[in-house]
Specification:
By secondary structure, this protein is of the alpha/beta class. It is globular.
């Protein structure tokens, strides 16, 4: 894609509004250095030098969008606890609308703690409860969404398999969005199968795609466009989900875009170095959906998502990509070509 076309697409981004619905989390990073091995067990002793907190899960998708748009919102559930308050504060500081977040006094806010020594993740500690929303909470969420659906451009379902996205909630929100002619995107979870029929795009990774298609995951081919097993999976999922586009992320091999009545399109990775893959999928679904909202074709949207993900994996922590970084990635790619 030429830079002037990228600029044309991004020039429309600020005025778009996208709502992200899914599992909200607080990402905690404990930074330190390793100086010795513990005498109590064969594990490293990390001397802590600092801590950082970021919106995680579905909230990180909204955080990625906020780098490009003036208005975005998240819908999910948090506990009535310190972590829940901290997450809402972080989102509000970034002008991300939290009005429709459900606060549940009986729920513990999901917190993922990563201990980083140097450039290496030593361990991750998860504190979570997997629980579906009540019928009353589903009714409140769908009602709140119904009041704003006419004012949005797209909705993104971000499923980390923690329970918030259930069949009824997804069905009702999808029906409202589709009836209003809005873009509907989904980032699915392989262990939490939901009906994604009639969506605009579904974005699994390779392993998730094979699982959703009901096929054993094979070793990836050196040439994804010649990967017969992957091609079969793409055809199955296009039919199963009846989606316009299926974007399968392939890690170091980039992405494969499947569309109805179109040949599969491979987008090679643009990553120059990989420090941390945390949140790369969040970035991909955020930028792909935003690009579609701005009039990009699915192939153009996939290119933008691919470049954005390449920038993010070159950073430590739950990171985002800025407009300037995205443009520089395309510019560097053009200079190499």
């Amino acid at each position: 894609m030429k830079l002037n076309r990228l600029d044309e697409i991004l020039s429309q981004a600020a005025g778009k509004r996208i709502v992200v619905i899914g599992d909200l989390m607080l990402d905690e990073f404990v930074w330190g250095k390793v100086g010795r091995i513990s005498p109590e067990a064969p594990v490293p002793v990390v001397q802590v030098t600092g801590e950082s907190f970021f919106p995680g899960g579905a909230a990180n998708v909204a955080r990625n969008l906020r780098e490009f748009v003036d208005r975005t919102a998240v819908i999910g559930v948090v506990g009535k606890d310190r972590s829940g308050r901290q997450l809402r504060t972080l989102l509000n500081e970034q002008n991300i609308d939290t009005a429709a977040i459900v606060e549940d006094p009986d729920l513990q806010t999901i917190v993922k703690t990563r201990v980083i020594a140097g450039h290496q993740q030593v361990v991750r500690v998860d504190r979570e409860q997997v629980r579906a929303p009540t019928a009353e909470q589903v009714a409140n969420v769908t009602s709140a969404f119904g009041k704003i659906v006419s004012d949005i451009d797209a909705v993104i379902f971000e499923d980390y398999g923690k329970g918030f996205l259930g069949s009824e909630l997804v069905r009702q929100i999808s029906a409202q969005a589709q009836a209003a002619g809005k873009i509907v995107a989904a980032d699915p979870n392989p262990n939490h199968p939901l009906d994604w029929r009639n969506t605009t795009v579904v974005k699994p990774n390779r392993a998730e795609a094979f699982l959703a298609a009901g096929l054993p995951c094979t070793d990836s081919s050196d040439h994804p466009e010649k990967d017969d097993a992957l091609m079969k999976v793409g055809a199955i999922l296009l039919g199963k989900w009846d989606t316009k586009s299926l974007l399968v992320t392939l890690g170091e091999q980039g992405m494969m875009l499947f569309q109805k009545n179109e040949a599969p399109h491979h987008i090679p990775t643009k990553a120059q170095q990989v420090f941390d893959v945390s949140g790369a999928g969040d970035t991909a679904i955020a930028l792909f959906t935003l690009a579609l909202c701005c009039g990009a074709s699915p192939i153009e949207a996939a290119e933008i998502a691919n470049h954005a993900s390449a920038v993010v994996v070159g950073k430590l922590g739950t990171a985002t990509v800025t407009k300037q970084e995205l443009r520089a990635s395309f510019q560097n790619d053009a200079s190499v070509a």
